[in-house]
Each structure stands twice: as structure tokens, then as C-alpha cells.
């Protein structure tokens, strides 16, 4: 028995002194390259070429200004406030976490940072574990392309990302199971770090695009802070991630979330403004109308990528932009998924692929849903023709659609859809067609503030019946069409189409009439005695 024990101890001792296997050394993680515009100082123009993530980071670092917010291990705080104020969590997606934040200039902005618990990181990590052989050949990470984000997924992972603000730079990762050996644990850490690095590169690309884009419907970079710059351009080390890892934090204007319910609750004129703005954005993306001379494709064109700022829709999620076209061998290779639409293949390229796909996606998420419902009866034909082009853009382009949309806005703002007499010189004579002439009396300089309001269809607010009109004749026609309307107040305020606001009322009394300044006019039917 003693000999057996001694033999066992000797065997164990020999094992203890055996050299431990060295952790797997992964090949170097090369920064990806993207086809992006870069300013050329010689020609003073943008040139489209392959740009590495390191070059983009160098350009961003030159404009980085961390004085707008202080970054610490515990989170962020407003630099002008003694007591730390932490950002308010708004949303999280596959790649980013968004918080509401007040910067050093006092602006309320949307603060965007890397989501270490997002689906992009987790999917990358699972794929790398399932493709270990591919991973060691250094092909998976250097050629990884993330799949499109489904519209029914908000991007949240099962991890508690509410605490992500305190771990913005990276997340601690301790390996898989407790019984994993040292080599496996090291490989897991290395794979997670590489995934974090790969996903972060997407944020660098988005921040760069925001910096160079010049359009009012594209989110602009408000603030930018890069910490530990050297860690951006170097491959990840073999040690676990820590709070000293590199971080990219940037902000844009804070906007409201775009939802279908919110859009459908808007008046038709406000929905027309959104459709007009989206069409102008598509026109900017067209190669003939931007400084890059290349059509820009939004791979993930959805309502969720936009926010509403000052009643305008602005695209704020730009990490899925590309300046590349679609290659093909036959027409079937140019089939647009989800739209049952195919584009012609010509000399190895899908003709107008980017522009056509942008049009189809914009139609599905905005134009087809918003433009027709509630449109004035005499304008439905024009609106219907535009919707048909967005649904089937054969021989259509963004500049052509913008021209059609501009004509629709012109007809609406100029009252050209109204049934009026037009002289030979093209002037509209309103007084000759007023069927309600003599049915209304007017009290100049009077208003009915807060009195006799009622709800009506297509109102612009939830308190009363507020609409816009081209002139007083149209206001009288609207009042005649409403069974509850006996009076209306014509406001001097005008909408974005230069139409006047009108408030329909279901009653009027001498006591509720108030003398006001500023050009208000109160009209009421003749049978009302005040």
C-alpha cells in the first residue's frame, strides 16, 4: 500500500513538473477596409477608395474633444456639475447603447457608445466558437459581414445592458465553464476581445460617415471622445479586457423615436413633410447630387433607423451605409428581397441597384403608408402616382421622384387643387367661386381662445379641430363640411407650406369673444346673433 502511495505521489509530482501547454497564439487581427470617401487636398474633392479602420480612427482622433464629457470607470458626468449626473438610458441595439445626455455646452444630445452585450458581439462570439478552424486561419474575423437586423428585434441580448453604461469600454469575460482548462479559457477571452474589436470598428465607420455627410436629414456628429487612442490601432492583447481599454463615445441631436402609430397620428400635411424629406434624402444619396459622386446605399433602411427632430425625419443609424454596388451574372442575382422585384443585370452589375433599393425601402417604410391616407380628395390622383412609382420604380430614379414630390407640395401649398376659376394669364380668381359668399360674418381682431373646441377628422392637435387652409374660402368650405361647425378662427400663423392655421368652433358667444392683436379673424354663420 505504501509503495502504491509513493508511486502515486511520484507520478503526480512528475505531472506537476511537466511544462504547461502555451496558450494558442491567434493570428493578428487586421483592421477591415471599407470603400469610403476621403478628402483629397490636391483635387479638393472627395475620392472613393478603400479606407482602413485605422486610417478612419486617425482622422476621428484629430477632431476628438473629450472636454464635452468626462469618462471614468463608473460612467459619465456632466463636466460643469459638481454632483455627477448619469445619462438616462434610452435604447440599445445590436451595436450601440443610446443615452440622453447634457454635454458641456448645455445641449441635450443622444450619447452613443459601444454595446458590449449586444447581439453583434454575441453572434460573433458564437460563430467564432463554432468555426474554430476558420478562426485560426484568420479568415472569419477579417471577412466578417454582419447580417441585416430584423425589423422585429430591438437588438437587446439576454444580458443586463442597463448596467452597460458603467462598463462602456468593454465587458469582463471569464471564460465558459469553470472546468475549462487554461488554454480554452484563454482562447475564449481572446475570441471575445476580437469580437469586441471587430464590432467597435463599425462604430468608427458610423462616426466618420456622420462627420463627412452634409445634409439636414443626416445626423451630424455633435461631440466625439476617443480614449486610449493607441488601443484603437493595435491588436488586442492576451490579457482580459479592462477599464483601460479603448473607448469611442459620440453624440448627435436628440430626437423622438419614429413609430408607425406616431406617424399615422400626424396630420396629412405633417406626413407630406416627412415624405418630402425622405425623398430629398434619397435624392442626396443619388450619385448626381452628393459630393462623393457615388450612389449611397442604406443596407438597413427602416423607420427604426430614423428619429424626428423639429418635425423632420433624420437618419441617425449609419453603420450600414455602403458605396458599393451589387455584382451579378444574371438578372436573378439582382432580385431585391422582400419586394418581389428584380433589377436588370448589365455587364456584371445590377443597374441602379443602390438607388432602386433605397426607393423600394423608403416606399415600404414611409411613402406607401403615409402619403395617400387623408390626402385631399382632389390630390389623391397625384399622390397615387407617386406611391405607384415607389412600389414599382421601373425607369424611375430619386431625382424624378423628387420632382414629382415637389410638384405635389406646390399644388398643395398654392391651392391649385381647389376648384377655382383661372384666367388666361394663369391667375386664380378666388372670389368668383365662393359658393358660401354672404353666409359668414367676420370679426377682425377677435379670437375664441380655449372655448367651443371639438374633435374632428385629421386635426393637427388633440384638443380641438385645427387644420390648415389656403385661404378663407377653403376655411368656409371646411366649416360647411363639418356638421358641428358654426364658426372658425383664421390664425395669422402659417405652416411649413405657407398655409394658414384655422380653428373650427361649435359655438360662439359675445362673452367668449376676446379682443386680440396680431391679425386674428373670427368668422361665424349669419344665423348666429352676438
UniProtKB/TrEMBL annotation:
According to the record, the residues making up region (Disordered) are: 1-29, 151-186
SUPFAM superfamilies, sorted: Protein kinase-like (PK-like) (SSF56112)
Extract the GO molecular function terms from the UniProt entry: non-membrane spanning protein tyrosine kinase activity
Q: Which domain of life is it from?
A: Eukaryota
Give the Low complexity compositional bias ranges. 154-168
Query: Where are the compositionally biased (Acidic residues) regions?
Result: 173-184
PANTHER family (UniProt xref): PROTEIN KINASE DOMAIN-CONTAINING PROTEIN
Protein name per Swiss-Prot or TrEMBL: Protein kinase domain-containing protein
Q: According to the entry, what is the taxonomic lineage of the organism?
A: Eukaryota, Metazoa, Spiralia, Lophotrochozoa, Annelida
Amino acid at each position: 500500500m505504501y509503495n502504491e502511495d509513493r508511486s502515486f505521489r511520484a507520478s503526480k509530482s512528475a505531472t506537476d513538473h511537466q511544462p504547461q501547454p502555451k496558450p494558442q497564439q491567434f493570428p493578428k487581427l487586421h483592421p477591415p477596409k471599407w470603400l469610403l470617401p476621403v478628402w483629397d487636398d490636391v483635387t479638393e474633392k472627395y475620392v472613393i477608395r478603400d479606407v482602413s479602420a485605422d486610417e478612419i480612427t486617425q482622422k476621428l482622433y484629430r477632431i476628438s474633444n473629450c472636454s464635452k464629457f468626462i469618462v471614468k470607470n463608473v460612467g459619465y458626468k456632466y463636466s460643469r456639475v459638481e454632483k455627477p449626473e448619469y445619462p438616462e438610458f434610452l435604447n440599445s441595439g445590436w451595436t450601440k447603447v443610446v443615452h440622453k445626455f447634457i454635454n458641456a455646452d448645455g445641449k441635450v444630445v443622444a450619447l452613443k457608445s459601444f454595446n458590449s452585450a449586444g447581439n453583434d458581439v454575441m453572434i460573433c462570439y458564437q460563430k467564432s466558437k463554432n468555426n474554430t478552424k476558420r478562426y485560426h486561419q484568420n479568415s472569419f474575423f477579417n471577412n466578417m459581414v454582419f447580417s441585416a437586423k430584423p425589423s422585429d428585434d430591438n437588438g437587446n441580448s439576454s444580458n443586463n445592458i442597463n448596467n452597460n453604461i458603467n462598463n462602456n469600454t468593454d465587458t469582463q469575460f471569464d471564460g465558459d465553464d469553470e472546468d475549462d482548462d487554461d488554454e480554452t479559457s484563454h482562447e475564449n477571452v481572446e475570441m471575445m476581445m476580437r469580437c469586441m474589436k471587430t464590432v467597435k470598428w463599425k462604430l468608427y465607420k458610423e462616426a466618420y460617415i456622420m462627420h463627412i455627410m452634409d445634409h439636414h436629414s443626416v445626423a451630424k456628429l455633435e461631440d466625439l471622445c476617443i480614449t486610449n487612442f493607441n488601443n484603437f490601432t493595435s491588436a488586442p492583447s492576451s490579457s482580459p479586457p479592462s477599464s483601460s481599454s479603448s473607448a469611442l463615445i459620440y453624440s448627435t441631436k436628440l430626437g423622438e423615436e419614429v413609430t408607425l402609430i406616431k406617424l399615422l397620428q400626424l396630420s396629412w400635411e405633417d406626413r407630406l413633410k416627412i415624405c418630402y424629406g425622405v425623398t430629398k434624402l434619397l435624392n442626396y444619396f443619388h450619385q448626381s447630387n452628393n459630393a462623393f459622386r457615388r450612389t449611397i446605399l442604406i443596407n438597413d433602411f427602416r423607420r427604426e433607423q430614423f428619429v424626428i427632430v423639429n418635425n423632420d425625419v433624420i437618419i441617425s443609424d449609419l453603420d450600414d451605409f455602403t458605396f458599393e454596388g451589387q455584382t451579378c451574372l444574371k438578372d436573378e442575382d439582382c432580385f431585391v428581397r422582400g419586394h418581389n422585384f428584380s433589377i436588370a443585370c448589365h455587364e456584371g452589375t445590377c443597374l441602379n441597384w443602390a438607388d432602386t433599393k433605397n426607393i423600394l425601402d423608403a416606399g415600404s417604410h414611409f411613402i406607401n403608408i403615409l402619403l395617400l391616407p387623408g390626402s385631399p380628395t382632389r390630390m389623391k390622383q397625384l399622390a397615387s402616382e407617386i406611391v405607384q412609382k415607389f412600389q414599382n420604380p421601373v425607369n424611375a430614379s430619386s431625382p424624378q421622384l423628387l420632382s414629382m414630390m415637389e410638384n405635389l407640395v406646390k399644388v398643395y401649398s398654392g391651392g391649385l387643387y381647389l376648384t377655382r376659376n383661372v384666367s388666361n394669364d394663369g391667375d386664380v380668381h378666388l372670389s368668383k367661386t365662393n359658393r358660401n359668399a354672404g353666409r359668414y360674418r367676420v370679426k377682425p381682431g377677435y379670437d375664441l381662445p380655449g372655448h367651443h373646441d371639438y374633435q374632428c377628422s385629421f386635426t393637427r392637435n388633440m384638443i380641438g379641430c385645427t387644420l390648415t387652409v389656403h385661404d378663407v374660402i377653403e376655411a368656409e368650405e371646411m366649416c360647411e363640411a363639418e356638421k358641428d361647425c358654426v364658426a372658425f378662427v383664421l390664425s395669422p400663423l402659417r405652416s411649413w407650406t405657407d398655409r394658414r392655421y384655422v380653428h373650427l368652433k361649435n359655438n360662439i358667444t359675445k362673452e367668449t369673444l376676446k379682443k386680440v392683436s396680431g391679425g386674428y379673424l373670427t368668422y361665424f354663420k349669419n344665423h348666429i346673433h352676438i
